[in-house]
Amino acid sequence: MDWIMALKVPDGSAGALVSVGHLQALVGLLAVFLFGLRTRWAWPVLLVQQAMVFLLLVIPNFDGGAAFFINASVVVALLLPCYGAWRWRTAAVALSPDGAALPAVQVRRATGRDWGVALLAFAAATLLFMASDVQAGFPLEGGLLTVLVLQAFYGAVVTVVYLGLAHRIYEAWWLWLAFAVVQLATSLVFPSPPTSQLLNGATVLLVLIAFWRWHTAVYYPPVPGAEAAGDAAGGAPATSPPA
Question: For residue 131, how many C-alpha atoms fall within 13 Å in the half-sphere facing its CB?
Fold first, then answer.
Protein backbone atom coordinates (compact mmCIF):
# COMPACT_ATOMS: atom_id res chain seq x y z
CA MET A 1 0.00 0.00 0.00
CA ASP A 2 2.81 2.40 -0.86
CA TRP A 3 0.34 4.74 -2.57
CA ILE A 4 -1.34 5.37 0.80
CA MET A 5 1.95 6.17 2.49
CA ALA A 6 2.77 8.69 -0.26
CA LEU A 7 -0.48 10.66 0.00
CA LYS A 8 0.05 14.32 0.77
CA VAL A 9 -2.93 16.49 1.55
CA PRO A 10 -2.74 20.18 2.43
CA ASP A 11 -5.14 19.93 5.34
CA GLY A 12 -3.40 16.87 6.77
CA SER A 13 -6.47 14.65 6.44
CA ALA A 14 -4.41 11.86 4.89
CA GLY A 15 -3.33 10.82 8.37
CA ALA A 16 -6.44 8.68 8.79
CA LEU A 17 -5.78 6.97 5.46
CA VAL A 18 -2.22 6.19 6.45
CA SER A 19 -3.37 4.79 9.80
CA VAL A 20 -5.96 2.55 8.16
CA GLY A 21 -3.34 1.49 5.61
CA HIS A 22 -0.97 0.46 8.39
CA LEU A 23 -3.77 -1.33 10.24
CA GLN A 24 -4.83 -3.35 7.20
CA ALA A 25 -1.18 -4.33 6.64
CA LEU A 26 -0.94 -5.58 10.23
CA VAL A 27 -4.17 -7.54 9.83
CA GLY A 28 -2.66 -9.05 6.68
CA LEU A 29 0.39 -10.13 8.69
CA LEU A 30 -1.92 -11.78 11.21
CA ALA A 31 -3.61 -13.66 8.36
CA VAL A 32 -0.24 -14.96 7.13
CA PHE A 33 0.61 -16.12 10.65
CA LEU A 34 -2.71 -17.97 10.95
CA PHE A 35 -2.24 -19.57 7.53
CA GLY A 36 1.08 -20.88 8.80
CA LEU A 37 -0.79 -22.54 11.68
CA ARG A 38 -3.24 -24.04 9.13
CA THR A 39 -6.23 -22.85 11.11
CA ARG A 40 -9.59 -21.97 9.59
CA TRP A 41 -9.49 -18.58 11.37
CA ALA A 42 -7.04 -17.41 8.72
CA TRP A 43 -9.81 -16.92 6.16
CA PRO A 44 -12.07 -14.61 8.23
CA VAL A 45 -9.04 -12.50 9.14
CA LEU A 46 -8.03 -12.33 5.48
CA LEU A 47 -11.57 -11.26 4.58
CA VAL A 48 -11.37 -8.44 7.13
CA GLN A 49 -8.05 -7.31 5.64
CA GLN A 50 -9.42 -7.35 2.10
CA ALA A 51 -12.52 -5.45 3.24
CA MET A 52 -10.25 -2.77 4.72
CA VAL A 53 -8.42 -2.50 1.40
CA PHE A 54 -11.79 -2.14 -0.33
CA LEU A 55 -12.74 0.70 2.01
CA LEU A 56 -9.45 2.43 1.32
CA LEU A 57 -10.11 2.25 -2.42
CA VAL A 58 -13.58 3.77 -2.20
CA ILE A 59 -12.86 6.51 0.33
CA PRO A 60 -13.83 9.77 -1.42
CA ASN A 61 -10.88 11.84 -2.47
CA PHE A 62 -10.40 15.49 -1.86
CA ASP A 63 -12.09 16.61 -5.11
CA GLY A 64 -15.32 14.83 -4.34
CA GLY A 65 -14.72 11.87 -6.66
CA ALA A 66 -13.57 8.32 -6.05
CA ALA A 67 -9.95 7.90 -5.06
CA PHE A 68 -9.69 4.70 -7.12
CA PHE A 69 -12.06 2.81 -9.36
CA ILE A 70 -13.22 -0.64 -8.31
CA ASN A 71 -12.23 -3.33 -10.79
CA ALA A 72 -12.64 -7.08 -10.97
CA SER A 73 -9.51 -7.80 -8.89
CA VAL A 74 -11.07 -6.09 -5.86
CA VAL A 75 -14.25 -8.15 -6.18
CA VAL A 76 -12.26 -11.39 -6.57
CA ALA A 77 -10.10 -10.51 -3.54
CA LEU A 78 -13.29 -10.23 -1.46
CA LEU A 79 -14.82 -13.47 -2.77
CA LEU A 80 -11.76 -15.72 -2.45
CA PRO A 81 -11.59 -15.64 1.39
CA CYS A 82 -15.24 -16.74 1.44
CA TYR A 83 -14.41 -19.59 -0.95
CA GLY A 84 -11.38 -20.59 1.12
CA ALA A 85 -13.39 -20.63 4.35
CA TRP A 86 -15.98 -22.85 2.65
CA ARG A 87 -13.30 -25.24 1.38
CA TRP A 88 -11.69 -25.50 4.82
CA ARG A 89 -14.96 -25.85 6.75
CA THR A 90 -14.62 -29.62 7.24
CA ALA A 91 -10.91 -30.06 6.55
CA ALA A 92 -9.56 -29.44 10.06
CA VAL A 93 -8.09 -32.34 12.02
CA ALA A 94 -6.78 -32.41 15.58
CA LEU A 95 -3.01 -32.11 15.86
CA SER A 96 -2.90 -34.16 19.04
CA PRO A 97 -5.15 -36.94 20.42
CA ASP A 98 -5.88 -35.03 23.63
CA GLY A 99 -7.05 -31.95 21.71
CA ALA A 100 -4.43 -29.72 23.33
CA ALA A 101 -3.32 -28.32 19.99
CA LEU A 102 -5.47 -26.22 17.68
CA PRO A 103 -7.16 -28.13 14.85
CA ALA A 104 -5.28 -27.74 11.58
CA VAL A 105 -6.09 -28.66 8.01
CA GLN A 106 -4.14 -31.38 6.23
CA VAL A 107 -2.07 -30.18 3.29
CA ARG A 108 -0.96 -31.86 0.09
CA ARG A 109 1.32 -31.56 -2.92
CA ALA A 110 0.08 -30.19 -6.22
CA THR A 111 -0.85 -32.63 -8.96
CA GLY A 112 -0.41 -32.15 -12.69
CA ARG A 113 -4.07 -31.21 -12.89
CA ASP A 114 -3.55 -28.57 -10.20
CA TRP A 115 -0.69 -27.01 -12.17
CA GLY A 116 -2.84 -26.90 -15.28
CA VAL A 117 -5.73 -25.28 -13.42
CA ALA A 118 -3.34 -22.75 -11.86
CA LEU A 119 -2.00 -21.71 -15.26
CA LEU A 120 -5.51 -21.36 -16.67
CA ALA A 121 -6.64 -19.39 -13.61
CA PHE A 122 -3.63 -17.08 -13.91
CA ALA A 123 -4.29 -16.40 -17.61
CA ALA A 124 -8.03 -15.92 -17.10
CA ALA A 125 -7.56 -13.63 -14.10
CA THR A 126 -4.99 -11.51 -15.95
CA LEU A 127 -7.33 -11.02 -18.92
CA LEU A 128 -10.30 -10.33 -16.64
CA PHE A 129 -8.45 -7.73 -14.59
CA MET A 130 -7.03 -6.07 -17.70
CA ALA A 131 -10.48 -5.91 -19.28
CA SER A 132 -12.05 -4.42 -16.16
CA ASP A 133 -9.34 -1.73 -16.04
CA VAL A 134 -9.89 -0.79 -19.68
CA GLN A 135 -13.65 -0.70 -19.27
CA ALA A 136 -13.16 1.67 -16.36
CA GLY A 137 -11.91 4.25 -18.87
CA PHE A 138 -8.15 3.84 -18.90
CA PRO A 139 -6.67 4.00 -22.43
CA LEU A 140 -4.08 1.43 -23.46
CA GLU A 141 -1.27 3.76 -24.38
CA GLY A 142 2.24 4.62 -23.33
CA GLY A 143 3.42 3.81 -19.83
CA LEU A 144 -0.13 3.32 -18.60
CA LEU A 145 -0.34 0.04 -20.52
CA THR A 146 2.65 -1.24 -18.56
CA VAL A 147 1.03 -0.20 -15.29
CA LEU A 148 -2.23 -1.96 -16.19
CA VAL A 149 -0.42 -5.14 -17.20
CA LEU A 150 1.61 -5.19 -13.98
CA GLN A 151 -1.50 -4.49 -11.92
CA ALA A 152 -3.32 -7.35 -13.68
CA PHE A 153 -0.36 -9.68 -13.03
CA TYR A 154 -0.38 -8.62 -9.38
CA GLY A 155 -4.06 -9.48 -9.00
CA ALA A 156 -3.66 -12.75 -10.92
CA VAL A 157 -0.78 -13.90 -8.72
CA VAL A 158 -2.78 -13.15 -5.57
CA THR A 159 -5.74 -15.04 -7.05
CA VAL A 160 -3.67 -18.15 -7.78
CA VAL A 161 -2.07 -18.06 -4.31
CA TYR A 162 -5.43 -17.85 -2.53
CA LEU A 163 -6.92 -20.57 -4.74
CA GLY A 164 -3.95 -22.81 -3.94
CA LEU A 165 -4.34 -22.21 -0.22
CA ALA A 166 -8.08 -22.82 -0.45
CA HIS A 167 -7.28 -26.28 -1.87
CA ARG A 168 -4.56 -26.75 0.78
CA ILE A 169 -1.78 -27.01 -1.82
CA TYR A 170 1.72 -26.63 -0.41
CA GLU A 171 3.24 -25.20 -3.61
CA ALA A 172 1.09 -22.06 -3.27
CA TRP A 173 3.68 -20.87 -0.76
CA TRP A 174 6.40 -20.97 -3.45
CA LEU A 175 4.51 -18.31 -5.38
CA TRP A 176 3.60 -16.28 -2.30
CA LEU A 177 7.23 -16.27 -1.07
CA ALA A 178 8.54 -15.19 -4.49
CA PHE A 179 5.89 -12.48 -4.65
CA ALA A 180 6.70 -11.20 -1.16
CA VAL A 181 10.43 -11.07 -1.96
CA VAL A 182 9.75 -9.08 -5.16
CA GLN A 183 7.59 -6.63 -3.20
CA LEU A 184 10.34 -6.16 -0.61
CA ALA A 185 13.00 -5.69 -3.28
CA THR A 186 10.82 -3.16 -5.09
CA SER A 187 10.27 -1.13 -1.93
CA LEU A 188 14.02 -1.09 -1.29
CA VAL A 189 15.07 -0.21 -4.84
CA PHE A 190 12.45 2.46 -5.46
CA PRO A 191 11.74 5.28 -2.98
CA SER A 192 9.32 3.95 -0.36
CA PRO A 193 8.50 5.04 3.19
CA PRO A 194 10.46 3.16 5.89
CA THR A 195 7.19 1.85 7.32
CA SER A 196 6.35 0.22 4.00
CA GLN A 197 9.78 -1.41 3.82
CA LEU A 198 9.41 -2.68 7.39
CA LEU A 199 5.98 -4.18 6.67
CA ASN A 200 7.25 -5.83 3.48
CA GLY A 201 10.18 -7.28 5.39
CA ALA A 202 7.87 -8.64 8.09
CA THR A 203 5.69 -10.18 5.37
CA VAL A 204 8.67 -12.00 3.86
CA LEU A 205 9.65 -13.34 7.28
CA LEU A 206 6.15 -14.59 8.14
CA VAL A 207 5.64 -16.11 4.69
CA LEU A 208 8.97 -17.91 5.02
CA ILE A 209 7.96 -19.30 8.44
CA ALA A 210 4.55 -20.38 7.13
CA PHE A 211 6.18 -21.96 4.09
CA TRP A 212 8.48 -23.99 6.30
CA ARG A 213 5.61 -25.12 8.54
CA TRP A 214 3.64 -26.37 5.54
CA HIS A 215 6.82 -27.98 4.18
CA THR A 216 7.24 -29.84 7.45
CA ALA A 217 3.58 -30.90 7.44
CA VAL A 218 3.92 -32.29 3.89
CA TYR A 219 7.29 -34.02 4.12
CA TYR A 220 7.45 -34.94 7.81
CA PRO A 221 3.90 -35.63 9.02
CA PRO A 222 3.68 -37.12 12.52
CA VAL A 223 3.32 -40.88 12.62
CA PRO A 224 0.01 -41.80 14.31
CA GLY A 225 0.70 -42.82 17.90
CA ALA A 226 4.36 -41.81 17.70
CA GLU A 227 3.86 -38.78 19.93
CA ALA A 228 2.54 -40.84 22.83
CA ALA A 229 5.20 -43.50 22.25
CA GLY A 230 7.93 -40.88 22.25
CA ASP A 231 6.69 -39.42 25.52
CA ALA A 232 6.59 -42.84 27.10
CA ALA A 233 10.15 -43.57 25.98
CA GLY A 234 11.38 -40.17 27.08
CA GLY A 235 12.31 -39.19 23.53
CA ALA A 236 11.07 -36.92 20.75
CA PRO A 237 8.06 -37.84 18.63
CA ALA A 238 8.92 -39.79 15.51
CA THR A 239 8.11 -38.52 12.06
CA SER A 240 7.54 -40.31 8.82
CA PRO A 241 10.27 -40.12 6.14
CA PRO A 242 9.97 -37.58 3.33
CA ALA A 243 7.42 -38.53 0.66
Answer: 7
